[in-house]
Amino acid sequence: MEPTDIEHHLQHHGIRPTAMRLLVCQELRRASRPLSLRDLEERMPTAERSTIFRTLTLLLHHHAIHAIQDGSGALHYEPCESDDHHTLDDQHVHFYCEQCHRTFCFRNEKIPQAALPEGFKMTSINYMVKGLCPYCAKKSPSLQDI
Questions:
Q1: What residue numbers bound the domain in which 45 lies?
Q2: Phi-psi category of 60—alpha, beta or left, where left has phi over 0 and alpha has psi -120 to 50?
Q3: Are 105 and 123 in contact (CB under 8 A)?
Q4: Is the model's pTM score more than 0.70?
Q5: In this prediction, what percent of the chain has a pLDDT beyond 70?
Q6: What would the pLDDT profile of 60-92 be if each residue is shown by its tens digit?
Q7: Whether 108 contacts 142, CB under 8 Å
Q8: Order of strands across the sheet that contains 65-69
Q9: CA distance 75 to 38
Q10: What's the chain's Rg over C-alpha atoms?
Q11: For residue 108, what is the domain's CATH number?
């Protein structure tokens, strides 16, 4: 039996592919946007919150997923696209809608390079654009021209 893409991804990152780990990864891949712990709880009603949280923590530790801070107070998670450890080149722009509170990935929009003073070494960067998504902008005509 051939391992699935998700099983291969987990194994490549040194993670044993248990049923819960596979389910969490499947939900993250199925989503069209980064998901919070609460989003995952809603999508997986039979799983316990603590089990989902422990799974996310393990996946983060092994760089199989990454977390985004969008300013909402909750981390949002999305799968890393490659089997290699993610690098700064893999990072992309995210957009947070201030009305519907959804976070979107702009995978084709790379984060601009930050010029740091000598001696500083960057290990990660978070680039979050905030505003209204197209759906919310249509609902708020007075804000369309801002």
A1: 5-143
A2: alpha
A3: no
A4: yes
A5: 87
A6: 898 888 888 877 788 899 887 655 555 554 577
A7: no
A8: 35-36, 75-79, 65-69
A9: 10
A10: 17
A11: 1.10.10.10
